[in-house]
Write a structure and sequence with these properties.
By secondary structure, the chain is an alpha/beta fold. It has four domains: 140 residues, Response regulator (Rossmann fold); 165 residues, 3-Layer(aba) Sandwich (Rossmann fold), CATH 3.40.50; 71 residues, Helicase, Ruva Protein, domain 3 (Orthogonal Bundle), CATH 1.10.8.60; 58 residues, Arc Repressor Mutant, subunit A (Orthogonal Bundle), CATH 1.10.10. The protein has 18 helices and 16 strands. The strands form five sheets. The protein has a five-stranded parallel sheet, with helices on both faces. The chain is elongated and about 110 Å long.
Length: 462
């Protein structure tokens, strides 16, 4: 006889009744537990989830009112609202049975009961528990999914010749459910590409769920990705819907997949093969209809050759590959990106500026090692800190050897370079010698002496 995959708790102080109940019900259910007293019931409910609790109504000697059972019935409903409760007592009467049902019990058993009556009552309670749980599951999932619906990221901006293949591939792959692997340096906009694919696909109205695999601790990977049931481990105080379920009918974006350890790669591969997962603490198989898009800045081919990344997982996620160029290889997009982020941050911080006509071209002379993300943050910082009516290149702190000078406009003579640097610093700080000297990394007295040597007036930069 096939057993029900249910969990039953018997709370009974009569040892003979508890043993008999357990022996009978064990033939029909996978898990039967017994508590001789309700004293530890609350702590048990915080750790475990039960489908049905068979609860005695009187535990104190000489007490026959049933009030104890009704008290614990209310506590069970507060702590585990999906659990069905069957009350039983040797001192049953019609009024007590009616009161029990009104208080929320699914049924009432008067002792002594016969085997068939016990089995039928508990099976019916179990089926009602399943129905209640099934009715609640879509609501739990919908509530969790809400945060992932209609919350698209920024616009994907691209017009440079080096981006034509990227745009063409996005257009070609969006109409399919093919797995996509996006490769590129940090900050190049891999998640924006994933959003662009999602927004042009038939799943656009469904959830887009992004997971940074590099930030998920290995011990929480299964809980984060597949979910868990209440009580499945020490800190599982409530049921959690995993990312695969949240992305059902939508897109699951797995960022930094190259950081996944070999043992976690196996678990992910198993889920990707047939899109079937099970929450921790549950044997129920859940099918997740998800479109998988992965991204990494790691050289996956090298990792596969070294055995650090499974080749079967690599082929599973790499149906279509998109190589995203660095910003230094698509500098034609910098003016468009500047316009977009400048408008966004002026609006966000309630600022109004004019823009130096030469600024966009000047920004293209920098190589942007942090790519689009660095450009975005540089624009935000400039908008916040600029106190003049016009935004210029002086409002951007661009460091390192990548800030390129135009050969025709700038002399390589050291004296000329030093003179230009002093004038630039004075202009940046409106003639404030202390701040200019600090910017140049020299003392105020040294700055004053060099200004005299180069014939630079204090007001030249003001």
């Amino acid at each position: 006889m096939k057993k029900y995959n249910g969990s039953i708790l018997i709370v009974e102080d009569d040892e003979d009744v508890a043993i008999t109940s357990r022996m009978i019900l064990k033939q029909y259910f996978e898990c039967i537990e017994v508590l001789p007293s309700p004293k530890s019931l609350e702590s048990r409910l915080r750790q475990e989830t039960y489908d049905v609790i068979l609860l005695d109504m009187n535990f104190k000697a000489g007490v026959t009112s049933g009030n104890e059972g009704l008290f614990w019935l209310n506590r069970i409903q507060a702590l585990s609202p999906l659990t069905q409760v069957v009350l039983q007592t040797a001192y049953g009467d019609i009024d007590l049975a009616v009161r029990s049902i009104k208080e929320g019990a699914v049924d009432f058993l008067a002792k002594p009961w016969d085997k068939d009556k016990l089995v039928t009552t508990v099976i019916n309670a179990f089926k009602q528990a399943l129905a209640r749980r099934e009715n609640r599951e879509p609501k739990v999932r919908q509530k969790a999914q809400h945060q992932y619906l209609n919350h698209g990221q920024g616009t994907f901006i691209a017009s440079a010749p080096s981006m034509r293949n990227v745009l063409k591939t996005i257009e070609q792959v969006s109409g399919t459910d093919a797995n996509v692997l996006i490769l590129g340096e940090n900050g190049t906009g891999k998640e924006l590409v994933a959003w662009a694919i999602h927004n042009q696909s038939k799943r656009a109205d469904q959830a887009f769920v992004s997971v940074d695999l590099g930030a998920v601790p290995p011990s929480l990977f299964e809980s984060e990705m597949f979910g868990h049931e209440k009580g499945s481990f020490t800190d599982a105080k409530e049921t959690r819907v995993g990312k695969f379920e949240l992305a059902d009918k939508g897109t699951l974006f797995l960022d930094e997949i190259g950081n996944l350890s070999p043992d976690l790669q196996i678990k992910l591969l198993s889920a990707l093969q047939n899109r079937n997962i099970s929450r921790i603490g549950s044997n129920t198989v859940i099918h997740a209809d998800v479109r998988i898009i992965c991204a990494t800045n790691a050289p996956l081919n090298d990792l596969v050759r070294r055995g650090a990344f499974r080749n079967d997982l690599y082929y599973r996620i790499n149906t279509v590959e998109i190589q995203l160029p660095a910003l230094r290889d698509r500098k034609e997009d910098i003016p468009l990106l500047f316009d977009y982020y400048f408008e966004e941050y002026c609006r966000r911080y309630h600022k109004t500026f004019s823009v130096d006509p030469a600024l966009a071209q000047q920004l293209t002379r920098y190589d942007w090692p942090g790519n689009v993300r660095e450009l975005q943050h540089a624009i935000e910082r400039a908008v916040i800190l600029c106190s003049r009516p016009e935004l210029t290149i002086d409002d951007f702190q661009l460091y390192g050897p990548t800030m390129q000078a135009e050969e025709a406009d700038r002399s390589l003579n050291l004296s000329n370079i030093e003179r230009d640097a002093i004038r630039h610093a004075l202009k940046k700080f409106n003639g404030n010698l202390s701040r200019a000297a600090e910017e140049l990394g020299i003392g105020r007295t040294t700055l004053y002496r060099k200004m005299e040597a180069y014939g630079i007036g204090r007001t030249e930069g003001a």
